[in-house]
Design a protein that fits this description.
Blueprint (H helix, E strand, L loop, with lengths): L2 E5 L2 E3 L5 E8 L8 E6 L6 E6 L5 E3 L7 E6 L4 E6 L8 E7 L5 E2 L3 E5 L2
Parallel strand pairs: 2-11
Antiparallel strand pairs: 1-3, 3-8, 4-5, 4-9, 5-6, 7-8, 9-10, 9-11
């Protein structure tokens, strides 16, 4: 069974940056696409970004140009670099193993506020 552990969330002022990490264990990381999702209070969980096993990336329109997803297969880790953060980016961010069956991390809180 795959386990995903996220870290890097916190409180940041508007315009600031954070980098989220997600480390996987229990599966062959190099063949798995990985994704970051987020869920704000009272809203549905939404896709933020994905990265394929070969490194192809995809972003939600709301984060294009501000967020960057990357991975290191040797470290079984995927990152989400978040720049120019806005209050509307406030949410719990989840890492997802994009294979069948899919697995989710426990989530990490990101709060953007002055």
């Amino acid at each position: 069974q795959v386990q995903l552990v996220e870290s890097g969330g916190g409180l940041v002022q508007p315009g600031g940056s954070l980098r989220l990490s997600c480390t996987a264990s229990g599966g062959i990381f190099s063949v798995a696409a990985m994704g970051w999702y987020r869920q704000a209070p009272g809203k549905q969980r939404e896709l933020v970004a994905t990265i394929g096993s070969g490194g192809r990336t995809n972003y939600a329109d709301s984060v294009k140009g501000r967020f960057t997803i990357s991975r290191d297969n040797a470290k079984n880790t995927v990152w989400l670099q978040m720049n120019s953060l806005k209050p509307e980016d406030t949410a719990v961010y989840y890492c997802r193993w994009e294979r069948y069956p899919a697995y989710w991390g426990q989530g990490t809180q990101v709060t953007v506020s002055s």
